[in-house]
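Run log, item B.
One chain of 87 residues. Sequence copied directly from the ordering sheet:
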Amino acid sequence: MNTTLEKLKERIKDKKYKLTTQRQTILQAFIDAEENHLSAEDVYVLVKEVAPDIGLATIYRTLDLFTELDLLKRLDFGDGRNRYELN
């Protein structure tokens, strides 16, 4: 398994959260993405290809959680859309 994913999984576990299938799918989207700065909508497009049951609201909640857990960094480029990158 991917070393980056393993490290992120351990950080989630250390903070007493579960790495659900949906959360792992979203993390994997960031690991696999060629573009470093993804918006929630970008993540949704990538994730729905492999997990069509994950909704946009779930993406937003998960991005907020991952930002709170310091797994992702939220970026604002002044265009009204937050973007995220692995931290």
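Observations after the first pass:
- The chain has a mean pLDDT of 92.
- Helices lie at 3-14, 21-32, 40-50, 56-68.
Flagged for discussion on Thursday.
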